[in-house]
Design goal:
By secondary structure, this protein is mostly helical. Helix content is 46%, strand content 9%. The protein has 6 helices and 3 strands; from the N terminus they run αααβααββα. A 3-stranded antiparallel sheet has the order 1-3-2. The protein starts with 14 loop residues before the first helix and ends with a helix.
Length: 136
């Protein structure tokens, strides 16, 4: 992943939030090299964080979204493909994910990347195990 320097103007009280968000973007693009959590498990991928993310909110699609990723771990899936698999209108995906990721403080239990203008999602195997236990 290439890095560049970006200058933005934000209110002083928001600097920490912007830095956390930027760190999360960099961390979410990191590729796990094995099925086990790395030393210093990525934020949002720990057992308690996954539990809180899965059980949080009242969306009809958030848990099915996570369960789909958990049933297909370590594979990249496009948002429209996941939406179709869980009988969700693809146009509703950004709103659902926006609300859910805000509840997770921008640390969802999956990785994201952009490929050819579309967002793709991957849930590592060790995170998927926790989701399947919760869904069980």
């Amino acid at each position: 992943m290439a890095y560049i320097t970006v200058t933005v103007t934000v209110p002083e009280e928001c600097v920490a939030d912007v830095l956390r968000y930027a760190a999360g973007l960099a961390e979410s693009e990191a590729q796990p090299t094995q099925d086990e959590p790395r030393r210093g498990t990525p934020r949002g991928f720990g057992r308690e964080a996954v539990r809180n993310a899965y059980l949080g909110g009242s969306s009809d699609y958030w848990r099915p979204w996570l369960e789909y990723l958990a049933d297909n771990p370590d594979e990249w899936h496009s948002g429209p493909a996941i939406a179709q698999a869980i009988s969700m209108d693809p146009a509703a995906v950004p709103g659902m994910l926006g609300a859910a990721e805000r509840r997770c403080r921008q640390w969802p239990p999956y990785e994201k990347r952009w490929v050819e203008g579309r967002r793709e999602f991957l849930m590592p195997g060790y995170v998927a195990e926790v989701v399947r236990e919760l869904a069980g």
